[in-house]
# Entry
Amino acid sequence: MKEAALQAAVAQMCDLYGIAWYHTHDSRRSPAGWPDLALCGAHGFITRELKNEHGKLTPEQERWGWMLRQSGISWEVWRPADLRSGRIQRELSAIK
# Structure
């Protein structure tokens, strides 16, 4: 599964759960490394980087992830396996 397909599946779940989501569509004009998705529900705000099964984080993505976590914002990487295992659904359900 490609990242775009994973993102589409996550967006569909967010819409179903009433979770607001944001994705920068053209990141070429934005600082490098910001997470793919910012997700806000009535019970929480999380950020997630999307990767295919073997995708690697860039140094800028690792830096943003570290900084977000240090500031108390949930940051993780989601992969297609997380969709299949139900992890993404559980984490979205927790903030809806």
Summary: The chain has a mean pLDDT of 96. The first strand starts at residue 20 and ends at 22. Residues 3-17 form the longest helix (15 residues). DSSP finds four helices and four strands in the chain.
